Amino acid sequence: MKCLGLHAFSGACVELSGSVLLDGVEELIAPPPVHTYLSPGFIDLQVNGFAGVDYCNPDAPQDEIARSLEVLFSTGVTRLFPTVITGSPEAMLGALRNLARARRELPHGHAFEGFHVEGPHISPHDGPRGAHPRRWVRPPDIEEFNRWQDAAEGHVRLVTVSPEWPETPRYIEHLVGEGVVVAIGHLQATHSQIEDAVRAGATLSTHLGNGANWELPRHPNYLWQQLAEDRLAASLIVDGIHLGSDFMNVALRAKGLERSVAISDAVAPAACEPGPYMLGEVEVTLHAGGRVTLRGSDRLAGSALRMDRGIENLMRLAGLSLSEALTLATRNPARVGRIAGRRRGLQPGERADIVEFDYDPAAKSIRVLRTWLDGEIVYSS
After folding, report:
1. What is the pLDDT of residue 282?
2. Using CB atoms within 10 A of its CB, is residue 34 exposed (0-12), middle (13-18) or buried (19+)?
3. Residue 72 CA to its chain's centroid (Å)
4. CATH no. of 42-342
5. Residue 338 and residue 182 in contact, taking contact as beta carbons nearer than 8 Å
6. Which tens digit of pLDDT belongs to each residue from 8-56?
7. Separation between Cα atoms, residue 170 and residue 153, nearest integer Å
């Protein structure tokens, strides 16, 4: 592969070359007129589904999963953690087997860098539980995790758990010992329970500010504690719906740009027309404004966010620069998610996952033009 454009972080005109890995990142002394930008491919650690495909569905057809990946490439995403949420033991194992097959057999299945299991070991309480079905919430179980990992062919890389279960610290220690990143989320936990989870090895707060009680004590509460805990990075749903600009700005200042990760938390209706949809056994509605809610309710049930729009939202709502917004969607998730070959940006030896895009600084908008995965063009406008 070879491409020419403005380095999205430095602004210099560079020529990138390589195959699976970048061999050369050369700054040109006398560049031709160039107006497009180059960035590492976007990374999304939480994608429940996309383009009408529910990754939690054990029966999702392989060709439909492949189609959803093609749509994701058009948004600049090159690596993602498809996410399986709370369900019956059989359904969760079936979904992981189906995703593992897709990762192994589809031409671009390796874009599924690893799998994120969000639940079922979350808070059973209304509010913190979010849209997860109550009847399938259950305590942490190391044997169940082992069954997930067998079904996933060893690719479970991130697990979200609530600290409020007595079994949680030992569970976290076991998963961390297996090389899995553990996040806390969908929780109604005390200060000491959160402290025990962090001490056991939890390193991330999943979609901080969401999956929470409608009302909390002024202080102390579990949001303040997670914001203040420097050992926890935080993922943030940057659709402009799940978080208002005030909370987003506070979270970014508290965690620092180095510990903040942009996620979509996209569900199957993302990139689809408004209307009714099913997320497993849960009925939802995608509204014209992009909100996804439980059917007949205003409770959010994931998002319809594209990551390219999320980067725009970080610039518009949080006042980030282009390079800062891109960091939250590239290097930070690579580091937090322990994705090898993606942590240093556009550097020789890194994976050749590249996005070329137009950028309008006045409108703070981007338009993806081409996407490379391992040096292969997987999307071109």
Report:
1. 86
2. middle
3. 12
4. 3.20.20.140
5. no
6. 999 999 999 999 999 999 999 888 899 999 999 999 999 999 999 999 9
7. 23
Q: Cα dist. 12→27, 35, 157, 211 in Å?
A: 7, 11, 35, 41
**Predicted pLDDT at 31:** 86
Q: Measuring CA to CA, which residue among 305, 329, 269 is closest to residue 44?
A: 329
The ranges of the chain with pLDDT < 70 are: none
**Domain locations along the chain:** 42-342
Residue 124 · residue 135 · CB < 8 Å: no
C-alpha 200/C-alpha 202 separation (Å) is 6
Q: Which of 177, 103, 186 is nearest to 137 (CA)?
A: 186
pLDDT at 332: 98
Instruction: Give alpha helix (H) positions in 25-111.
Output: 62-74, 89-105
Which residues is 6 bridged to in the sheet?
13, 37
What is the amino acid identity at position 183?
A: A
Which one-letter amino acid corresponds to residue 164? E
